[in-house]
Every structure is written in C-alpha cells, then in structure tokens.
Amino acid sequence: MESFFSRYKNPLILVAVLFVQVIALATQIKRPDNPNSPRSGSTSLLRKWVATAFAPVEKGLAGTENLFRRTWRNYIDLHNVRKENHDLKEKIDQLKIEQAQLKEQAEQTRRLQALLGFKQRFVGETVAAQIVSAGGSEQSRVVYIDRGSSDGMKPNMAVITPDGIVGKIKEVYPLTSQVLLVTDHESGAGVVLEKARLQGVLHGLGQGETQVNDIMSDEKVQAGEQIVTSGGDGIYPKGLPVGTVASAGADRESEPFLRIKVKLAANLDQLEEVLVITKMVEQKTSVMEDPNSVRAADVLARRLPTVTRSADKATGNSPEPPQKPVTTPVKKPEIEVHRFSPFVSVLIPLAAMFLQIWLPRKIRFVGIFDLPLLVTIFFAVARRRQVPGMLTGALMGTLQDAFTNHPIGVFGISKTIIGFFASSIGVKLDVENPGSRFLMTFGFYFLHRFIYLLINRGLVGVVEPWAWGHTLLAAFANGLLAVVLFAGLDRFKGRR
Questions:
Q1: CA nearest 157: which of 131, 125, 120?
Q2: Model pTM score
Q3: Which of these, 70, 173, 233, 273, is most buried using a 10 Å CB contact count?
Q4: Of all residues in the chain, what percent are helix, strand and coil, respectively (each to 5)?
C-alpha cells in the first residue's frame, strides 16, 4: 500500500520549503512593542510567534502546579491552622485600634490636601494575572504573566500584589506579557521614606536586591523604616508599599549620597498571582469628598480574586458482477517532458536576474516586467515536475530579494508557490501554443502580485494598495513578453 509520504510527497515538500522561508523572513522582521510609540523598542516577529505559541502551554502547566499546591495547603497541610487563626484574631484586634487612630489623622490630612489643591492618583482598573514562567539571570530578572495585548496589557503598566510593588510590564505579546521586576538593574521607581519624608529612586542591583539612591548623606535614616511609592514616576500610584530599610550607609561611589539597602515587602521568589494596574484615575481631593474613599494601597488585598481551575460477512459463492461492455480506450496525446543542460539552467536565470536589476535603471518603464517570474514559469512548465518547479521559484525569488533589498523570503515565498502550480499545470495540460502561454502568464502574474501584497501586509507590516489599472497593464505586458520569450527559450529544450 502506498505510504502517506510517497502519496503526498510534493505538497509536503512545498510546505517544508515555505515553512523554512517564513521562519527566515520572521527572523528579519521586527515589530514595535508599542505601535503608538515607534521609539519604545521592537521585538522580532519570530519571538512574538514563539511567545504566543507557548503561552497556553505555560499557562496550563502553571495552573496544574497551582492546583496541586492549593490542594496541599487547603486539605492536607492543616496542622498549624488553629494556631494561625488565634494569631490572626489578635492581630485583627490590634489593627482595629490602629484604624481608629489613623482615621482622625486621615481626616486632617484630607482637609490639608483640599486647601492646597492636592491631587491623588487612585487605581481605576486592575486585571488579575498569574505567573506562568520566569526567566532572566542574576543580572536580569523577568517573569511572564498569562495576560497579553488581547487583555488590554500595555508596556509600563504597574504590576503589584497586596504586599507591595512587583515591577512593570516591559514587553507585550498577544497572549502573554513580560514583567520587569524591581530587582532588575534596569528598573526604577520613585519612593519616599514614610516617616522622614525623604524622596529617592529605587533601583535593582540585579541579584535579587534593591537600594534607594539620591538621598543626601547628612539625612538620618533608621533601619526598619517603611518605604512607599511617591507617585512621581508616572507608573506606580502614590502610597503603595515598597518595603523597609534594611541598612543605610555612605555611598563610596557617590559620597554626598546614602546607599540604602531595601528589604522588599513583596516576596518576588514566591509570586503566583499579581494585579496589573490598567488604568489610574487622577482625582482632586475635596473636603466634601466621601470619607469612605480608599486609596490604592488600601484596596489591593480586596482586588485580587481567587483563581479557579478546571472481509466478507458470510461464506459462499458471490454473484458475478455484470460484465461491462468492452470499449477501446482512446489514447491521449503524450505530453513532452523537457530537460535543460546545466549550463542553460544556470545561465538563463542569472541573465534574467541581471536584466531585472540593470534595465529599469536605464529604461524606466521596463520595471513593469518581472523576468524572474517568467523564467520560473517557463522552466516549471517545461520540466513538468513539481519539486524542481518550486525549487526554481524559491531560488529565483531569494535572489530577487537579495538584490532588491527586500527581506529574504518576500519574493521567495511568492515564486515558490508559482513554481509549484506552474509545474502542476504542465503535468496536466500542454501549454506550448502562444494563446495558452499568454493566458497562463496573465493569471500567474495576478496570483504572484496577490501573494506578494499578502506577505507584505501580514508578515512585513507594509500595506500597499491593490492598483487594478497598473496590475492589469503589467499582467498584459508580461503575458505578451512571455509569448516571445518562451518561443526563444524553446530552442534550448531537450527531450528526456
């Protein structure tokens, strides 16, 4: 019995050749991270495809891991629950006392802010996300979440937990996003010491540590003091917890300033679920403002939702089939299969490529002709074999890409498909007469132009309009040239 590969050998080879060319093209194309801001950086199209393809797998693995982890914590590892409940009740009682004390201070602060026309930035909208994978090194700390551009993610959105800030979104893909943690050496956040009211900038040290810079060395900073976001960086709302001062000392590299090591409030090594701030609302504080208004730092614990998962029939003589009438088969005319010498197979494509590049510089209107396309059609139809036809198209297209400064693969993919279909027509039909050659070239030019525009729009990101008038004129001109050119090239044919 005929195997699957031998039966579909030619289509499979076509798919393989196109796959290689698409991958090669995707490695050259870069797409901006933020289409509205071209200077925001770019990512290769291949990297976006890989991230999109593996995002569901990573999301499923992360969900399975979290399911087993929660099962262990909620149903098996319960021996410390009673003690923890008792400790939590005592802590709640203490917090109630502190809340009563802080309420009066908050009312006084609100009145002062209203007098000064002070504006606060509140969390308008958030999206819950899960950590699906982690990446980076000791110098670069990043994680990936299961939310992408389809969920409204954008670069520089703040990522937080109820305990404190985590980082910001760096790169966005359709189904996932890359988060740059605050411990990365490229990160930064505006912070303020809660009691001393000293403002500085939080920087990552690249090894899981952070420090606050830009605070003068003559200021007194005590270990254990709370650090919160200042809101001045435009990414994190004001008042979010950052961490506590671990140590403070003179910075030998920048002597007028202190080197303040920070112990982060959020445990970045055990991240599972985070919140992405998708919208921040700027509101002006007023004396008539609802006293129950809650700032960003107060709503975090309530905004993070719980994530849920889920042969014959009998023996005997069979009746003889009715005899069909004997007919004499009509012998179809044999279609000739041609071959070419190695010298002709190399010289003609190179000559066509040279003329395609050189002639339009001298005679402008000659640029309407596509000589590499015509040579591809001629050799594919004459040889009447699909694999040589598509390989001829791939070679001609790749050379045309290389010599015309196109990304490698644009013309290559187009002419590979044309070579395959032209050789397929050559197997079935005899297209040796001028009329058939004109109509065939006319149609293939239209198909080639359509594939070219489709690749530019879908892969390269360049949108070119479909000019019907120019395309019809070019198809007609290439069809007429094909009649003359093919008649001249017929003299180089040899029978197999």
A1: 125
A2: 0.50
A3: 173
A4: 50, 20, 30
